[in-house]
Structure formats: structure tokens, C-alpha cells
Amino acid sequence: MHKITRTDTASPVVGVSNVHKSFGALKVLDGVSFDVNRGEVLVLIGRSGSGKSTALRCIDRFETIDSGEIVVCGHRVSGPKLDLRALRQDVGIVFQSYNLFPHLTIEENITLAPCSVKGISKVQAKEQARRVLAQVGLEDKLHQYPEQLSGGQQQRAAIARSLAMQPKVMLFDEVTSALDPELTGEVLKVIEALAADGMTMVMVTHEMGFARGIANRVVFMHRGKIHETGPAAILTSPATPELAQFVGTGL
Ligand code: ADP
Ligand code: MG
């Protein structure tokens, strides 16, 4: 897998600095910092409950933070004057499930936001829908409803829907976790192609082999902190017993 290594001196696409976040008495993010530069793939790993989804949701302002700073594509996400609409145009997010509107065709799912949020014409939006569906290998599913597609195809359509907004960064939160194993590969292949194409992304995944192949940087979360971080090689030679245990090499 080709990894993009750019020495980009511009400010990072995603900058997370010393972020703290609690839910009541539960500290979920305890001084988390990381940067993602243009064209980079950052993979977040860690046990269930370690704060991975919360970290992603803070980037897209689905959660607010208690302290620290998050800047995404020049938007001060943690600031009081955030233009939420502008942020959401720049950031695409795909979750584990429940991504598509069940009562709309795939085409309608994909053209909805570009028409209503970006104000582009129906004709243009439909053209774009064809293009992004081709990108995920689903050009023949335009007029089908989500329930007529397999889980893997639905996730690919959800990715296509995000791409139609022409995001500058994509966030993926365990997008293959709800899928049968035989459907996982087709979704990962789409993400791999996006990465090879230079898309900046932050991804939470339990697919360690995939993470090893795609990550420019791996962040291992443990008890709300970044316990270990480094290039993909840390997955095969972890420095801490916690990461070793997590990846199952038993240090
Ligand atoms: P991960 O994605 O690593 O499994 P999460 O970020 O989803 O972890 O959750 C971290 C912790 O925060 C968990 O203990 C979870 O139960 C808790 N949590 C997440 N969201 C909320 C919320 N909205 N309200 C209260 N607790 C939450
Ligand atoms: Mg999660």
C-alpha cells in the first residue's frame, strides 16, 4: 500500500491540543494532543471505552470539550464563534451504522446535502452522485433503497454520500465493526483507495492488519490518555505492555 509522506509545512488539517473532556465524573479525554497533516492517515486504537469515539466526535463538534483547543481546516472548533455549517462541510464522518436515510434512494441520500446545504443544482448533484458512487464501486445502485443493499454496500454508499460534500478530512468510526467478516474487505478497499488518493483521515478501527497497512501514525488511547503513539510499526513492536497486550503480542 502506497503511503503518502508529505512534508507539509502548512498548519495541520486537524490540530488537537491538550483536550480534556468529562461526562459528569467520568474523565474521558485527559490531555489528548495530536496533529494530522494534509494527506495523512491517523489511526486511533484502544480498548472499548478508552475515548476514541469521543475524540472523533469532538473534532466534528458533536461533543464540546472542557478545555484545550481543536482546530480543523482553519475552524476553531473549540471557539465561541465556530461556523458549524462551514466545519461540517469540510469534515465528513462515517459511523458504524445507521448512516443512510432508509426512505430515500441511494441517489437521493447522496444528493440531499449538496443540494440543501451547498445549494448546488439537482443536475449537478446527480452528476456528482454518479461520480462518487463510481468511486466506491456502486454506480449501478443509484435507484435502490438502502435495505436492498448489503451492509458492506450500505457503508460504501455512506462513504460516497460523505464524499459528495467534498470534505477536506474524513473521520471513520469503526465503519466495519457491524459487518460480517466477508463484507469488511470491500469497505476497507474503498478507504484504502481514498487514502492512496491523498484524502486526510482519522480512523478508529479494530482491523489491526489494515491499520498497519494504511496508518501514517497510530495513536493508542488508554484511560483517556495517549498511552503510545508512533508510526504503524508500533503495532508490531509496541513499547508499552498495554499496547502489547492490546495487539496481542504479549510483551
Ligand atoms: P470508545 O469509542 O473508545 O469505545 P467512547 O469515546 O465511546 O469510547 O466512550 C468513552 C467513555 O465515555 C465510555 O465510558 C462511555 O460510556 C462514556 N461516554 C461516551 N459518551 C457518553 C455520553 N454522551 N454520556 C455519558 N458517557 C459517555
Ligand atoms: Mg467507539
Structural notes for this entry:
The chain has 251 residues and is an alpha/beta fold. The chain is 33% helix and 24% strand. The chain contains eight helices and ten strands. It has helices spanning 52-59, 84-90, 106-116, 122-135, 151-163, 181-196, 208-214, 241-247; strands spanning 14-23, 26-36, 41-46, 67-72, 75-76, 91-94, 169-173, 200-204, 217-222, 225-230. Strands 6-7-8-3-9-10 form a six-stranded mixed sheet, with helices on both faces. The chain has a four-stranded antiparallel sheet with strand order 2-1-4-5. A hairpin with a 2-residue loop joins strand 9 and strand 10. Helix 3 (106-116) crosses helix 4, helix 3 (106-116) runs parallel beside helix 5 (151-163) and helix 5 runs parallel beside helix 6. The longest helix has 16 residues, at 181-196. The chain is globular, with a radius of gyration of 18 Å. The mean pLDDT is 93. Adenosine-5'-diphosphate binds next to strand 2 and helix 1.
